[in-house]
Amino acid sequence: MRVSFFDPKERARQKADSRAADDEDLRAGHITRKELNIRNGGYGLMKGSKLVLSVKRTPATGKDTE
Questions:
Q1: Rounded distance, CA 20 to CA 34, Å?
Q2: Containing domain of residue 23, as a range?
Q3: Residues contacting residue 32 through CB under 8 Å, at least 6 positions apart
Q4: Which pLDDT band holds residue 64 (cuts at 50, 70, 90)?
Q5: Per residue in 25-60, pLDDT tens?
Q6: Assigned domain for 20 exists
Q7: pTM of the complete model beyond 0.85
């Protein structure tokens, strides 16, 4: 079994390399922005979602809590 450890500096480098490759693909016309969004998994992820906030009340007082 292979165990690896998270290295934040290495992950930051990987993300920067990926962004640079994405930018180059867009500039060269190899991919559209829509295709890139789909490939990167962010397309439509939050589309149609709503933020719902609920107020919790304390049982004893019935007053709002944060």
A1: 17
A2: 8-65
A3: 26
A4: low
A5: 999 999 999 888 888 876 556 666 666 767 776 666
A6: yes
A7: no
d(CA 66, CA 64): 7
Distance between CA atoms of residues 36 and 43, nearest Å: 9
The answer to whether residue 30 sits within a structural domain is yes
Q: How far apart are CA 60 and CA 54, in angstroms?
A: 18
Residue 1 lies inside a defined structural domain of this protein: no
Instruction: Enumerate residues 6+ apart whose C-beta is below 8 A from 36.
Output: 22, 25, 26
Three-state secondary structure call for residue 42 = coil
